[in-house]
Write a structure and sequence with these properties.
The protein has 6 helices and 7 strands. By secondary structure, the protein is α/β, with parallel strands linked by helices. It has a single domain, classed as Rossmann fold (3-Layer(aba) Sandwich). It has a 7-stranded mixed beta sheet with strand order 1-7-6-2-5-3-4, with helices on both faces. The termini are far apart.
Length: 183
């Protein structure tokens, strides 16, 4: 806990995390424009004495990094096609564990995209877990997780509300972050 806080402070980052420590939750994290987001997010959550797992493309889970990522709470995402549902798999994980917090980046990529993934909303609804909105604001060097988002069940409208929440924040590479709506 102390070392994470010290590293962030030395780098000039402020952490404002006021969400309750509930047994199960999803932290929706944006903007996601750099691999540094992962490091900053892990440090910020550790600085308050908490752990959060994460989803990551399976190609990152090669030896020896795979062991490290799994030890840190990483869940490899394998694109298995239509017969495999990541939402169903993660929902079942929530149902089988006493404690599980996952940080999920709705953009699903570090590239500019207006097509955000909706899996975090579907998982939260199916597993009946709260969503907390996490911000990595490079402009102000702030990591913020203070607000809960209650999905209505209307995935399209919920995603618009989430995107609206993140308007005005800047990632490490602002040109790679879009809260625009798809046409």
């Amino acid at each position: 806990m102390g070392i994470s806080k010290m590293i962030l402070k030395m780098a000039g980052w402020k952490v404002n995390i006021t969400i309750p420590d509930v047994p199960k939750s999803i932290i929706c994290v944006a903007p996601h424009t750099s691999n540094w987001d992962f490091i900053l997010g892990k440090l910020a959550y550790a600085s308050i004495g908490r752990k959060a797992g994460f989803l990551m493309k399976s190609t990152w889970f090669f030896f020896p990094l795979g062991y490290l990522f799994k030890a840190m709470g990483g869940i490899p995402v394998v694109r298995k096609g239509k017969q495999f549902s990541l939402v169903d798999y993660i929902t079942e994980l929530y149902k089988s564990k006493e404690r599980l917090t996952l940080a999920i980046t709705p953009e699903g990529t570090r590239k500019a995209t207006s097509k955000w993934r909706t899996g975090f909303l579907r998982i939260a609804l199916n597993a009946d877990v709260p969503i907390f909105l996490g911000i990595l604001d490079y402009e102000h060097k702030s990591i913020i997780v203070t607000d809960e988002f209650i999905p209505s069940g209307n995935i399209e409208e919920d995603l618009k509300r989430v995107k609206d929440y993140y308007k005005g924040y800047k990632g490490k590479y602002p040109e790679k972050f879009s809260t625009d709506y798809e046409q």
